[in-house]
Design goal:
This protein has about 100 residues and is α+β, with helices and mostly antiparallel strands. The protein has a single domain, classed as 2-Layer Sandwich (Alpha-Beta Plaits). The radius of gyration is 17 Å and the shape is elongated. The chain starts with a strand and ends in a 12-residue tail after the last strand.
Length: about 100
């Protein structure tokens, strides 16, 4: 099971990374906090202090087209906020 799916790179998470040393990731829905902590420490070689997780349900979406009403649903996902030790930094832009 691949624990970390992708990092969250938004203005809010970038600001939290700079001020509070927190970083966000979209993770596998079945992943536990300890698994997420170990995956981040192994991948980025940093010391993780805390892991907070949130589950998001899929939203219902409707759009109107020539052929009629199209109904659908977005994917459900799990988000993890990682707090690192003082002095530790994750640079998402280093390998671009």
């Amino acid at each position: 099971m691949n624990i970390l799916i992708r990092p969250i790179v938004t203005e809010k998470m970038t600001k939290q990374g700079e001020t509070l040393n927190r970083y966000g990731f979209i993770v596998d829905k079945r992943a536990e906090k300890l698994q997420i902590k170990n995956a981040v420490e192994k991948m980025y070689e940093v010391k993780v202090i805390a892991v907070n997780t949130m589950r998001y349900a899929g939203k219902s979406k409707t759009r109107y087209t020539k052929t009629g009403v199209q109904r659908g649903k977005t994917n459900a996902f799990k988000k993890a906020i990682i707090t690192l030790a003082q002095g530790e930094v994750i640079d998402f832009y280093s390998n671009i």
